[in-house]
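User: structure tokens for this one?
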Amino acid sequence: MAGIYFHIPFCKRICDYCDFYKSADLRRLGAVAEAMHRELDARRDYLRGEPLRTRYFGGGTPSLCPPELLGSLLEHTARLFDCSQVEETTLEANPDDLTPEYLAALRRLGIDRLSIGVQSFDDDCLRLLNRRHSAARAIEALRDARREGFDNLTIDLIFGIPGFGGDSLRRTLDTALETGVEHISAYHLTIESNTAFGRRMAQGRFAPVEEAVSEEEFLEVHDRLTAAGYEHYEVSNFARPGFRARHNAAYWHGVRYLGIGPAAHSFDGGERHWNPSSVERYIEGAAAENETLTERDRYNEYVMTRLRTVEGIDLREVAGRFGTERAARIPEAVRPWVERGTVVIRGERVSVPPRRMLLSDAVIETLFET
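Assistant:
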């Protein structure tokens, strides 16, 4: 089973923390959509006949797309790929775009999961982030989505925002739980150099929270959400039983996926491909770049993705895919982490307990082969 991802790189407003490729020139949306149709035709054999399990519109802000544009991409996909076993069709959305009429149209298209970029339920925090919605509008959008029949909703939240931990974070978590959404993605703010926050930091006008604060807020998020019945199944992801993000699991478990659109990435099992991060070059038909993964690349990627999930590393799988020597080295390499309680070994499983997942990157570095 495979996945398909449509990258819609357009936004009405650029958030001050965002490091993804995006454009605020909405005049090019139609031309990009036409190019996406051409790319679908050109890459119809990329998944080698494998049925699609998931379809995902990401961005950017896909909810800026009229329903007709989204529908045409889904219809075109159904003509080229086996969609008879699709289990999940997701659209990322900004709360401001989710009117009852738009939500009803999405339902008619077969979109059954919404990923809504809330980030915070604190209006002052939203202004700092340069979001274009208010907390009240986010709550209203979630209620409207329920009324239109959506029963699989996920929201994004950000923690680790200077000045908005403590009571602000607790109020945001309280409100998130009150909405009853099935899935919550909670990300620690990362300050990248090519963002508004990054430029302010370079000028000494903005600074990340201290490491101790990061850990405190991570544990606050973990404890509050798991106590409410959410499973902390990946570093940044929490789900009600049965509502894990199926599309994202493709990235974590090495499943084939095809990415369509500017800056979209694809993986065919042995190679990675990525489209140019330029609307203009994509429209002109610039070729994708590619990288063939060596066995060491595949091993490192396996370690990186698996240790970010609650299941962790399966030593039997490592032995089968990468050799018994690598499998034997892992328990010894992580022994210092085991002694600190950051890594747990149970039988053939090596994992980072969810409460310690903030340290998973450090554990991963221990096992990387250079």
